[in-house]
Write a structure and sequence with these properties.
Blueprint lengths: L14 H51 L38 H13 L11 E3 L2 E7 L15 E5 L2 E2 H11 L9 E3 L3 H5 L7 E2 L2 E4 L1
Antiparallel strand pairs: 1-2, 2-3, 3-7, 4-6, 5-7
């Protein structure tokens, strides 16, 4: 009886198997990229909606109380907006002075004024939030924008932690697509945000005129 010799075949992938593996990897990569694109689009849409909603809320607040949120000199004894903390009323550390500019201390009260007035949703003890973080109402000079805002813009909304590519898309949807001009400006310009490797760089701030 002849004894069988060792199996001389070598283990490994056939060309067909390699093709299948590469196809699966490609499909997964495309799915991941599409998923990230959907998330990015959702963040942009949310930021645009937040800017539009807060512009409308600030305008409604001004129409109702004749002052901008934060800048409103709320009565210290009988506050026109129920529940506003003492620091945000006349005599308080962050009280509004009614000069038309949302100054640094007043900015801390702007969110509370809007929330307590039932014009936006949120925790009155915190800044207004979206997916990327806090949104602040501040005077234009404190926006952190690389290029100063032109008159008559006095006050702006500031969004933080916005990647360059999203900032450009937000600007295109609301303004002129230029981060250094118009009613939407940023702490970096288009040249920085379109440079190789900077598309996902995080902006210190993206400011939109109220």
């Amino acid at each position: 009886m002849k004894r069988r010799g060792p199996d001389s075949r070598q283990d490994g992938f056939t060309l067909m198997e390699l093709a299948i593996v590469l196809t699966i990897i490609t499909i997964l990569a495309v799915a991941i990229l599409k998923s990230q694109s959907v998330v990015d689009q959702a963040v942009v849409a949310e930021a645009v909606a937040s800017i539009k909603d807060l512009r409308a809320a600030a305008a409604a607040f001004r129409q109702r109380y004749r002052y901008l949120p934060g800048d409103f000199p709320v009565d210290g004894g009988i506050p026109e907006i129920p529940g506003v903390q003492a620091a945000c009323r006349m005599g308080g550390a962050n009280a509004g002075n009614g000069n038309g500019s949302i100054e640094p201390g007043e900015s801390a009260c702007a969110s509370e004024h809007l929330i307590r007035a039932d014009l936006v949703k949120g925790d009155p003890q915190l800044a207004i939030q979206n997916r990327q973080g806090a949104i602040w109402l501040v005077r234009a000079a404190d926006s952190g924008a690389l290029a100063a805002f032109s008159a008559p813009v006095q006050n702006v909304l500031v969004l933080s932690n916005i990647p360059c590519d999203m900032a450009l898309e937000i600007d295109r949807k609301i303004d002129d697509g230029n981060l250094s001009s118009g009613t939407v400006r940023a702490s970096q310009d288009n040249a920085f945000c379109t440079a190789a490797g900077n598309q996902k760089a995080i902006l210190a701030s993206l400011a939109a005129a109220l």
